[in-house]
Amino acid sequence: MTSILIIDDEVEVGNFLSHLFMSKGYNVTVVNSGKEFNEIDFSHQPFHAAMIDLKLPDANGLVLLKHLKRRQPHCKVIIMTGYSTIKTAVEAMKLGASDYIEKPFDDIDLLEAQVDDLLISNVTSNEQRILDLAINVGLIVGQNETMRQLIQTAYKVAGKNVNVLIEGETGTGKEVLARFIHQASQRSYESFIGVNCGALSESLLESELFGHEKGAFTGATQMRKGLFEIASKGTLFLDEIAEASTSIQVKLLRVLETREFMRLGGERIFRTNTRLLAATNEDLQEAVQQKKFREDLFYRLNVVHLQIPPLRERKEDIPLLMEHFLKRYPGIEITFSDDAVKTMQSYEWPGNIRELSNCITRIVTLADSGHVKITADHLPFTGQRSVTSKKLTASSRSETLGEGMDEHIEKWMDEALCFYSQKEDIDLEEVLAQVKQLESQLGKALILQTLEATHGNRKEAAKRLQISTRKLRYLLNEKVNTE
Ligand SMILES: Nc1ncnc2c1ncn2[C@@H]1O[C@H](COP(=O)(O)OP(=O)(O)OP(=O)(O)O)[C@@H](O)[C@H]1O
Ligand SMILES: [Mg+2]
């Protein structure tokens, strides 16, 4: 028989839940204090589920949760909380609670459903669902314990309508995690819209978020809906939130408090039901201390705090991530020697997973077709350089570019990849045309530089550049005699 433990100091709540679950045929035990909880004989009384009130006069719900989980690790726990203690309820989920429910209960069906779901769910099915969702958004879960727990917590809070603040260094996967949360929520069929608070000017960001009426400012020739309106049923991802100006911060706070907003230049009040996820690679708490970020807004955004560890603190996941990124190039067979993997794991990865992803892209770009084995020699992680620019051939022969130049190209390539990784649509033809233009500009510039050194002597310049005079003239766009 299913046994449920209820821990609440309010006798009526205990009675109500007791009747509710007994009518479903469950065996219910109710205790009203920490003292009564301590009197339970856990070694002889196994519980399938427990509902714990966070605030008891003589005990802290979190302490009881820890105690219960230690004695009966398989017992599933739902935390009962008032709005003011949601943050603590999230803490409880990090400590092993499966879910929380807000008091007073205004939807009994929901409460019953939550408990029933909990009783039928099992660890394996939950883990599988997490993995499926993660694959869906391109998130590798890996083996790192901190990361696994973080994703578990993200999964547990995904279904709740609470704001989440995601912190982590650049490239650690804040946006991927935000997409995971959206995907794991009931809003997954609605839109997920991201906006970078650092990339837009204050007025543009304001109009982007709240929209504007026709004629609101010069150039506002048409009414435009803002993201709070468009993503009202979905998820709004505020990236680089620390960059939001003071005035935007005030406006955000107002929407978060009232769920209401007006379009710029308008008077009509709109309601929004957007779920807000925010991200930053700065320490937002520190920004609050330095008075750069509003404390009240910080608390509103930071109901759930998810801190993504840098890649250097989860090196065990590097091989899996490498494999994942290599799968993007199905026609190419690249393997890494054990030494190469170790070298990859001992590098600090300041640009985190994005840098790792770029590094793999570059290795693939430089590799010839056929099977290529990467050895540690190919990976001189020196200074800012992350991977060799030696051309990787099937036999791993190396051909170096002009000395020093390879480093510049490598850096440029890194920057270009980084730039394009933030764009959703890339016009590759356009990119390649720009690279071609760069090629001809660089050629011309080098010829002019050499001509200056040879005082205009074309023959000598061509010799120094190891090209024919004909080619030199061609590259300078001079008419070439067709003799
Ligand atoms: N766990 C992961 N599994 C697979 N790929 C990942 C993972 N985390 C991040 N990535 C990849 O790394 C790159 C950077 O991720 P993302 O854009 O989410 O980082 P970020 O923290 O938002 O970075 P920034 O602070 O620079 O905006 C992306 O290409 C993303 O697909
Ligand atoms: Mg990002």
From TrEMBL:
PROSITE patterns: RESPONSE_REGULATORY, SIGMA54_INTERACT_1, SIGMA54_INTERACT_2, SIGMA54_INTERACT_3, SIGMA54_INTERACT_4
InterPro entries for the chain: AAA+_ATPase, AAA_lid_NorR, CheY-like_superfamily, Homeodomain-like_sf, HTH_Fis, P-loop_NTPase, Sig_transdc_resp-reg_receiver, Sigma_54_int
UniProt KW Cell membrane keyword: no
Gene Ontology molecular function, alphabetical: ATP binding; sequence-specific DNA binding
Domain Response regulatory: 3-118
One Pfam family per UniProt: AAA_lid_14
The entry's keywords: ATP-binding, Coiled coil, DNA-binding, Nucleotide-binding, Phosphoprotein, Transcription, Transcription regulation
Stretches assigned to the Sigma-54 factor interaction domain: 140-365
Coiled-coil region: 421-448
Gene Ontology biological process terms from the UniProt entry: phosphorelay signal transduction system; regulation of DNA-templated transcription
Modified residues (4-aspartylphosphate): D53
Name the record gives this protein: Transcriptional regulator
Upper classification of the organism: Bacteria, Bacillati, Bacillota, Bacilli, Bacillales
